[in-house]
Amino acid sequence: MKKEIETANIPFLLLPKPALLITCGPFEKSNIISIAWSIPISRKPPLVAVAISPTRYSYHLIEEYKAFAINVPTYEQLNAVKACGSISGKDVSKWEIAKLTKERARKIDTAVIKECIAHIECLLEKKVELGDHDLFVGRVVEAYCEEEAYDLGILDTSKFKPILHLGRDKFTTTI
Ligand SMILES: Cc1cc2nc3c(=O)[nH]c(=O)nc-3n(C[C@H](O)[C@H](O)[C@H](O)COP(=O)(O)O)c2cc1C
Question: How far away, in angstroms, is 172 Cα from ligand 1 center?
Answer without folding.
Answer: 17
